[in-house]
Amino acid sequence: MADIMKFNERGSKTVIENGTVFSPKFDHDGLIPAIxxxxxxxxxxxxxxxxxxxxxxxxQTGEAHYWSRSRxxxxxxxxxxxxxxxxxxILTDCDQDAIWLKVNMSGQGACHxxxxxCFYRSVELSEPGAxxxxxxxxxxxxxxxxxxxxx
Length: 151
Hints:
30% strand; globular
């Protein structure tokens, strides 16, 4: 396995926001949110989290790695499903507390429940006087069956 990169200490606000030093801001759990979009279409595929090891592995291998909060371990996207993400570009926001990965997907979908994107439902705005918002499917067909891919 590759060595974990040591990321730069965070400098002044000016350096962080206007400089060329990459110094990601991990939260109190050591995580940073990562948004993955399709490099060609721009479609948002998923949101996950990275710790320093996942970000380091992603930078070193060119393939997306994340920190699974539910499993408490690093996972390479597609290690089970075969639906890997090859990174074409990594961006960070102005204060370096979020990561944006532009990726080329191999396989059918990014979502573990079988859709191309994890964002397969929209929140329907409540009408005045309505009791609560509801979810409406924006993707109506799964691109793969999870039971055929995952144990």
